[in-house]
Amino acid sequence: MNFIKYIKEEVKVIQERDPAIKRPIEVFLYPSFKAIIRHRIANHLFRKKRYFLARWYSQRTVKKTGIEIHPGATIGKGLFIDHGIGVVIGETTVIGDNVTLYQGVTLGGTGKEQGKRHPTIGNNVMISAGAKVIGSFTVGENSKIGAGSVVLNEVPPNSTVVGVPGRIVKRDNIKVPREELDQTHFPDPVKNELNALKDDCECLKDEHTLIYEKIAELEKQIRMQK
């Protein structure tokens, strides 16, 4: 009975976050749905120390869905992986509730160190297409990671991160990604800096013109005095 309830919750999560779904039965075709259900089974085997069987089952899931989730990863409720091809989730990754990942996301480690070596993703985080979150640190709840970003350091809650390496460009943006899935309207710090430089250049150009006008006026006065 609990399993049936869980399936219904997963169907609801995918319906809420993907406007392409026309009928609930379509959810059963989604790689995200298959990958998460199969991960629950692989994770159960992993916790029972049936390591080979858990890895075998998870690798079959990769072939079927294109989504690689290590059976040791800890995943909360309401994870949604949109499309999912190329998503990689490492062994010691911890994912909170209501997290959204897009295609090509990597939650990876930085080397062969032992222990916790993958990120912890807080509740209600959205990680956009192609983003890489690498290392053992926390991405705070309600945060957004922009498409193609490479995040190598701690992210405070309610933050927006963009760029390579990832930079925090907004704080205390407390909209929950489960309700707000806009991947395109992120602040652009590089564009802002370029605009500021452009404004400075225009000011210098105006000052340069005024200086030349003053010099020309002085030269005219000197000629008249002669």
Which percent bin holds the helix content? 25-40%
Which regions have little confidence, pLDDT < 50, spanning 5+ residues?
Answer: none
State the separation between the terminal residues, measured CA to CA.
105 Å
CATH T-level fold name of the largest domain = UDP N-Acetylglucosamine Acyltransferase, domain 1
Secondary structure: number of strands: 15
Instruction: Describe the strand arrangement of the main beta sheet, using strand numbers.
Output: 3-6-9-12-14-15
Q: Major beta sheet, specifics? A: 6 strands, mixed
- Count every helix, treating DSSP H or I runs of 4 or more residues as helices: 4
- What series of H and E elements makes up the topology? HHHEEEEEEEEEEEEEEEH
- What is the mean pLDDT? 84
Please identify the top-level CATH class of the largest domain.
Mainly Beta
- The CATH superfamily of the largest domain bears the name Hexapeptide repeat proteins
Structural class category = alpha/beta
Strand content: 15-25%
Shape category: elongated
Integer count of domains: 2
Which architecture of the largest domain per CATH?
A: 3 Solenoid
> How big is the Rg?
26 Å
